[in-house]
Amino acid sequence: MTREPAFRPHRVVVLALDGLLPFELGIPHRIFGRPKDAEGRHLYEVVTCSVRPPGPVETEADFVVQVAHGPEVLATADTVIVPASYELGPVFERGVLTDELAAALAHIRSGTRLASICTGSYVLAAAGLLDGRPATTHWADAEHFQRTFPQVRVDADVLFIDDGDILTSAGVAAGIDLCLHMVRRDHGTAIANEVARRTVVPPHRDGGQAQYIHRPVPDPQLATTTTARAWALGRLHQPIQLRDMAEQESMSVRTFTRRFREEVGVSPGQWLTRQRVERARHLLESTDLTIDQVARDAGFGTAQSMRQHLQAALGVTPTVYRRTFRTGAADPVGGRTAGAGGQDRAVASADRE
Fold this sequence. Notes:
Elements: E1 10-15, H1 22-32, E2 44-49, E3 55-58, E4 64-67, E5 79-82, H2 90-93, H3 99-105, E6 113-116, H4 121-126, E7 134-135, H5 142-148, E8 153-154, E9 160-162, E10 166-169, H6 174-187, H7 189-199, H8 210-213, H9 226-233, H10 242-248, H11 253-264, H12 268-286, H13 291-297, H14 303-314, H15 318-326
Parallel strand pairs: 1-2, 1-5, 5-6, 6-10, 7-8
Antiparallel strand pairs: 3-4, 9-10
C-alpha cells in the first residue's frame, strides 16, 4: 500500500533589507499566512530573514524590526520574496550587488520561485536574474530601472508580471495583487478570493499602473461608471453592448468610454473580457458544467470563443485549466505548482487595443 507523502506547507522566505518599507514587509505574511486546506492546515509557512545573522533591520520608519533568521534560511525556501528598500545603495545607483547581498542570494536553490515587490526588482535585476525577461517596478522608477538594466524588458503599465519562476510587481499595494495571484496560481480562485475577502481587498484589480500616475482618484464631482459595471457583472451571460453600459450612466458612448478608461485603466470591452475570463475560471474550478455550458454562462457564447480568450489570458485551454485545479493543483509537500495559473503573463496589465 502506497503511503501518501507527509504534508509540508510551501515555505515563503521574505528577505528583509535595511531601509525596508514595513507595509511591504507585512504583505507576504498577511496574504500567505491565511490560506488553509480542508483539514485546517496552513498551506504556507512564512519566515523572514536578513542578509546578516539574526538581529535588527532598519526600516524607513522610526523603528527597527527584529529578524530571527539569517541568510542561510533562503536555502530552505520554495518561494523567495524581496520587498522594496529605500537603502539599496549600489544596487539602485549602479545596478550591482553588494558582497553581503550577493552572498545571501547565493543560498537560494535552483528552481526556487522568486518574486519582488516594488523596487525589490532592482535586487533581482542586479543579480542578473531578469536578463532578457519581462519585469515591472514602481512607475516612478521605471525609466531609471530600464536605464540601469537595459537587458530587462521593462513594462511600466502593469501591476505585476508573472514570468513563470520569477514574478515582479509595481509599487506597494501591487504587492498584494502579486501575492494573491500566487495563491490563485498555487491553489485556485476560491482560496485566493477567500484570502482577499478576509483581508478586505479586491481579489483582482482592473487596469494597470497608468491609471495611478496622473489621476489617482477620479473627481468626485463627476459621474462615475460604477453603476454600469455592477449592471454588467449581473448579466455577464448575456450579450452586452457598449451603448447598453453607457445608458446605465445616461452618457453618450464616447463620454462613457473616456470616463471608463480614466477610472478603470482599460476599455469597457477589455474589462468585460476579463470579467468573463474570471467567471469562466470560477466555473471551471468549482462546477461540473460542460465546457459549452461554462462558455455560455460566462458570456463567451461558444466553447471556441472561450478557448481563444482563455488561451490568450492564461496560456492554456479550458480543459487543461480545469484539470489543473480540479485534480489537486496544490502540491501536498510544498513544491511549486506548475499548473495553468503558472502560464499567466502580465494578467493585470493595461491591455492595448
